[in-house]
Amino acid sequence: xxxxxxxxxxxxxxxxxxxxxxxxxxxxxxxxxxxxxxxxxxxxxxxxxxxxxxxxxxxxxxxxxxxxxxxxxxxxxxxxxxxxxxxxxxxxxxxxxxxxxxxxxxxxxxxxxxxxxxxxxxxxxxxxxxxxxxxxxxxxxxxxxxxxxxxxxxxxxxxxxxxxxxxxxxxxxxxxxxxxxxxxxxxxxxxxxxxxxxxxxxxxxxxxxxxxxxxxxxxxxxxxxxxxxxxxxxxxxxxxxxxxxxxxxxxxxxxxxxxxxxxxxxxxxxxxxxxxxxxxxxxxxxxxxxxxxxxxxxxxxxxxxxxxxxxxxxxxxxxxxxxxxxxxxxxxxxxxxxxxxxxxxxxxxxxxxxxxxxxxxxxxxxxxxxxxxxxxxxxxxxxxxxxxxxxxxxxxxxxxxxxxxxxxxxxxxxxxxxxxxxxxxxxxxxxxxxxxxxxxxxxxxxxxxxxxxxxxxxxxxxxxxxxxxxxxxxxxxxxxxxxxxxxxxxxxxxxxxxxxxxxxxxxxxxxxxxxxxxxxxxxxxxxxxxxxxxxxxxxxxxxxxxxxxxxxxxxxxxxxxxxxxxxxxxxxxxxxxxxxxxxxxxxxxxxxxxxxxxxxxxxxxxxxxxxxxxxxxxxxxxxxxxxxxxxxxxxxxxxxxxxxxxxxxxxxxxxxxxxxxxxxxxxxxxxxxxxxxxxxxxxxxxxxxxxxxxxxxxxxxxxxxxxxxxxxxxxxxxxxxxxxxxxxxxxxx
Length: 733
What we know:
Elements lengths: L2 H26 L4 H20 L3 H18 L7 H22 L7 H16 L9 H12 L10 E7 L10 H9 L3 E8 L17 E7 L4 H6 L8 E6 L2 H12 L8 H8 L4 H16 L13 H7 L5 H22 L6 H28 L2 H24 L1 E3 L1 H5 L1 H12 L3 E6 L4 E3 H22 L3 H6 L6 E10 L2 E8 L6 H10 L11 H5 L23 H9 L4 E7 L3 E9 L4 E9 L2 E6 L3 E7 L8 E4 L2 E7 H4 L10 E8 L2 E7 L1 E9 L13 E6 L5 E5 L1 H28 L1
Parallel strand pairs: 6-8, 13-21, 16-18
Antiparallel strand pairs: 1-3, 1-4, 2-3, 5-7, 8-9, 9-11, 10-11, 12-13, 12-19, 14-17, 15-16, 17-18, 20-21
Helix pairs in contact: 1-2, 1-4, 2-3, 3-4, 3-5, 4-5, 9-10, 9-13, 14-15, 17-18, 18-22
């Protein structure tokens, strides 16, 4: 694939995403003209670019789509759910055509071509035959009716014409132009201007000295009015000023113009505020003014076109200012885009790998400087370490992207699935500006897709059922994202039926996952949905019921060093909470030692460090300023048999709002940690999230704080349950 085609595919997919997002927004806000223009611009860009690379099967299809969008933005056809659905299906087909181009095939496969032919036949219905009445025409008619059925006399075109002296000699009758002007509408007022009339002795009976000031009520455009005077345009002075109602319309049209590099005159002609003849006259005046020699001591000043047009009284100042502002906005946006540069993701990955090696080498140099005892060398390596840390942060920032682009894809999913299920569902997105590593974003899409579809299928009830339960007829699915303790949290919340605990427990007993006599807490029952092959669906549908999915979702999230939890209130809704690391490459760590082994705790999760008192050494919890803090001993957990030191320390960590302590021998300080994944043979190892290389070349294990905190929480629950059961047992004895 050549470079030009590769760039087209990349940018074309961005424009395609913009089209789809715009269409979904248009369905909610059908009167938003800016959005319609944005959709048309995206389609027009794809069509034009496909012609440049000579991809005719995309160009031909997009030509049909563009025709429909052009009629839609001009108000010639009305927006409907059927049209929106057709345009969205056209977007899907365009994506398939881009796949064909990316694969290097000369033509689409027969089935793809058949789909395109069917879509073009449907699109042709909207581009053939008479145009239906539009909302704009109805609105204009209603304005006339509201004024008593007649015209609004105060809102009319003002035409100022001064016929040249040679009009009569050329066989032209000025009155004939005025009579033809009346055929465009109603002449509300006409005043004869004799200011060019000479004294009687100097008057030439074959010369014309009259001018006219006319107020005309018409729905014709400025160009139509100017066309009346085409035959005498060179022998008269003509100025046409629009009615006041037209000014706002011109300003609006200017704002809705495509963001192209248009000159001021082109913009004014495009919106209808200026005719081509008036523009040519203004340009001639500008050229004449530029050629004039400035007076001595004055700087040469080229007159601005807008100033000339205003001075000639062919256009209002407000319209010119709107066009200038539009020009400024376009130029500023182009300047911002010019500062952007596209970099292949593989190059960024290579950069991150090199930065990781640089971090390890810097740590080694810093260690050797400390051992050498040379102050100057130590200071030099400290400066180097600080620079390496800045380089690391800048390199990681290059791969950070907003999660909003991933969230926005679900607007289409919610629309299609809700129609398929016959439900009314709204999607609410918050925290779209939250950033995380691009590699994490790419891998989280599928788990999110499954959870959102699951919420719509199992969670949200039918509209009639919701009304019977006193809920709004339209259900909601929320996607929330925010940062918390060095992680990103993504929540999928629905206000549906919640998880049916009795049904889940019965299904689990039926499948042999739990024993009938086993006692489970509500949360343990809810967590059964993560078991492989578990499903409570009564029948298999296109969305669910096959028992494949939730276990895969959790496994995929855990492969990203994340976690997925669920909470539910039956009858009120469910919340799925995903926690993910911000990056999979390099983190700030806190280095600790147990015996001869070294471990790394993610620094964002560390709250404080305290000393473990001797009288608390025989327990697994302590009183931390009135709060019970369970802790885990790494020495016991990893069965380190070396001699226990006289002094131990506790590193207090927090995850998902829960605190826990990790007992270690030594606190070795902050450490830039390059995450190295463990081999697949260690995938079942609990409490370890990866490894890293120290400055000495030794390997240190990265602790999985999530697992340790949850382990402590479960131990605490078991102890509380045991303590609660002891009095009952004593009473029975």
